[in-house]
Structures
1.
Amino acid sequence: MRKLLFSFAIVMIGILSAIAQPVGYTHKAFLPDGCVVNYLVVIQNDSCFIEVNFDSDQSKFTDQPTMMIRTFADEVFKLNGSNPVCVVQSKLVERDGETKVVSGFYSTVRFNIEPSQMEALKNGIAKVRLSTTPYEHEREFKKDKIGKKLYEHYLKEKDKDSNF
């Protein structure tokens, strides 16, 4: 039963990711603490979430995930995540005539966010910190890469029901 529920969760994450347009970046691509991070706004049962997909060779979300955000207007808020899902991926990689198995983690967490906090994202995100282990993920931006896009996705998702 647990495997079935886990498989269903992975399929739903894949479907939601295919339908919606995530916003993301690659951080420290070839280093041990490197990762690919994608953010997605999800509105479900009148609650708003930021879904974070974290793909890394060595890091994954902690059991009690948190996300801290600082906007360019210097507003800081901390979001708590729920139900972290982590999948271990293995790939065969050929280098210099040798085939090796390379493993990594693909983690997904939904962070509950209030509408007033979503409104603050239109100022842009200057810094984000995710509670991952064994390396904590922290990224600073000189100019906004994800905040305004997440806010635009939030407006589209919010208006989806009224434009039906």
Note: The helical segments are 2-19, 115-120, 147-159.
2.
Amino acid sequence: MDDVDQKSCWGVTAWAVAGFAGVMALAWLFGGHEVVAVVAAH
């Protein structure tokens, strides 16, 4: 049972990281480097 929970947890973590990276990439494409720097600094 723990193995299933652990895999599920890592799956959610991977999707969250991928989603955040996607948002940062879109911000970089549309807003320029300054927007990403400000968001990353917080």
Note: The two ends are 37 Å apart (CA to CA).
